[in-house]
Amino acid sequence: MRRIACLALAALATTACGDNAPTQEEIDDAKARVERVAASTHLVRGALEMLGLMPVYSCGEPRRSFLNHAVEGLSSTVACATATVQALDDVTDAVVVTFPSGGCDVHGLRFTGRAVLEYRGGEDLMEMHADLREMAVDGQPLQAKVGYGTCADETRLFADVEGQVPGRAEHRFHINSRVGKREGLPIIGGTTLLFDGPGELTGPSGTDRITFTSLLYEVGNYLPKEGTALLETADGHRLNLAFQPVLWRVGKVEVTVDDKDPVTVPVVR
User: Fold this and answer.
1) How many CA atoms lie within 13 A of 153 on its CB side?
2) Which among 97, 110, 166, 238 is least surrounded, fewest beta carbons within 10 Å?
3) What is residue 95's predicted lDDT score, i.e. its pLDDT?
4) Of 109, 113, 110, 108, which Cα lies nearest the Cα of 130?
5) Alpha carbon of residue 202 to chain centroid
6) What domain range includes position 181?
7) Residue 218 maps to a domain
8) Tally of CB atoms within 10 A around 206
9) Is position 206 within any domain?
10) SS3 of residue 19 by DSSP
C-alpha cells in the first residue's frame, strides 16, 4: 500500500493556534477521516485510469475498426497486458483486457485480474461500459463499473466504485463520480483526472457523506492537486478540505473543522 501522504496532517497540532483553533481531539479525528478519504479516492482514480488505457471512441469510425486499432495500441503501450475483441451482438463488441498474475504497473498503480469493456453503437452514438469487478488495484479488489457516452450532445463519464477502505479494517466506501468539464483537460486518457460527485464512508461510528468538487489528480500522484472535499460526519460535524498546488509535487491542503479557524498543511502528492 502506498504511503498516506496525508500523514502530514499531524503537523496540525503545532500549526493550529488561537482561541478558535480546532482542539487536539478534532485534529486527530480530522487526520483519520482524511486518510480514509485519500485511500478510497485512490481506488476511484485507479478505475478511471483503467478506463483511460483505451482511447475514447472516434466518432464516425466503424466500431470494429476502432477497437482493432485501439487493442493494437494498448498492447504496444502496456506490453504486460493482453487484449482481445469479442463480438457480442450486431451492435455490441467487447474488449477483454487481462493482466498477468504478477500484475502490470501503469501510472504508478499495479493492476491484476481482467476487465471487460463493452462498446455499443458507433459512428453517431457510442456507449461504453466497463465491468472491473474481476480486477484489483495495488492488491485491493476493485468493485467498480465505469463508462462513458459520446458522439451525442455531450460526453459523459461515470465511475461507480465501492469496497473496503484499503488498510482500514471495518471501514467501507462508495463513491459515484462523474467528470467535471474544464477547458484544456481531456476527459480520459490524458495526464490528468478531474471528477466530481457524492460518496459515503461507513465505519463503526456510522456513515460520513462526502461531496467532491473539481478534484483534480495528476497521474501517478496519490493526493489531488486541487479541488475540494466536504465531509459531513455521522456525528454532525463538517470537515472541509481545500487542496491547492504549490510547486511540482508539493501542495497544501486547507482544513476547516466546523466554524473553527482553518489550518493550512503542506503535503506531498
Assistant:
1) 0
2) 238
3) 93
4) 113
5) 18
6) 24-266
7) yes
8) 10
9) yes
10) coil
What would the grid cell of residue 8 be? 502530514
The cell for 49 is: 485510469
pLDDT at position 224, please?
84
179-194 residue pLDDT tens: 554 444 444 555 677 7
Please report whether residue 113 resides in a domain: yes
Assigned C-alpha cell, 192: 490528468
Note whether 161 and 174 are within 8 A (CB): yes
* Number of folded domains that form the chain: 1
Closest CA to 142 of 40, 55, 52: 40
d(CA 232, CA 87) in angstroms, rounded, equals 45
The amino acid present at 67, given as its one-letter code, is L
C-alpha cell at 217: 489528480
pTM exceeds 0.85, yes or no: no
Query: What single-letter DSSP state applies at residue 22?
Result: P
Distance of CA 15 to the CA centre of its chain: 30
- Which amino acid is it at 245? P
Rounded Cα distance between 266 and 145, Å, is 34
